[in-house]
Amino acid sequence: MKYFSVLLLTTMLLFSCASCSYIQSSLVDNSQGDGIKNTGGSADVKPEKIDETEIAQQAYDLIDSAESLCKSGMGIISAAWHFGIWDAPECDTDSVVERLSVKIGFDVSFVEKNGGYTADELVNGDGDFEGWEICLITAENCLSAASAYTSVNEALEVARGLIREIPDGYANYQYLKDYYTKVAAYAAYFENVSGSYNDLTEAIAEYESKIQTAKEPLLFDFG
Q1: Contact 54, 170 (CB under 8 A)
Q2: Under a CB-based contact definition with an 8 Å cutoff, are residues 112 and 60 in contact?
Q3: Which of 121, 114, 184, 168 is nearest to 146 (CA)?
Q4: CA angle, residues 217, 220, 223, in degrees to nearest 5
Q5: What does the pLDDT look like over 49-89, one tens digit per residue?
Q6: Distances from the Cα of 24 to the Cα of 20, 73, 157, 159, 186, angstroms
Q7: Residues 129-145, buried b or exposed e (16+ Cβ, 10 A)?
Q8: pTM, whole model, 2 decimals?
Q9: Choice between 71 and 13, residue whose per-residue pLDDT is larger
Q10: pLDDT tens figures, 152-163
């Protein structure tokens, strides 16, 4: 699946690492009430508290991965939409799937298996949707099959839980929360794109500009 599979693999690795750390921290928090007896039974040993900067770094890495996946995913959606409007009508059924696959960065076999529509429908529509709409839906189906939406949502869910573990007074707390909020808004749009193609390009620019502004105060410490 070319470049998108690399991004997914990176995100899943980061998600797995942060999830394990988050689970471990939760276990530590839950065990602190009564203390843990050492093997000698002579004293209570308080579990070591995970450093808040480490938790913040894990949250940042997950949000950053979700951001990257949203950007790549929106690039795929934009490419499919553009292709459907301007290129698909000029294609024949023998070439349309291959050309669309190149545009959106997935292997032909993957698109044929997961796209959900025939080559003729990509060009001519199916009676319910026009050809350009089917090109867009095909890209969205491929993103879903590649677990793009799931990966984004799971990364953000864990990041939100990690942020809640950070004290309000932590230096980067508000910046991190703002970064999360902006990426979460982009993720919601990524999952439910609407409007025209021109609306899409404007929305992408607006979301990504807001995200970059929110991210900049964090780059020195976490980037």
Answers
A1: no
A2: no
A3: 114
A4: 95
A5: 568 999 999 999 999 999 999 999 999 999 999 999 999 99
A6: 6, 31, 16, 15, 30
A7: ebbbbbbbbbbbbbbeb
A8: 0.82
A9: 71
A10: 999 999 999 999
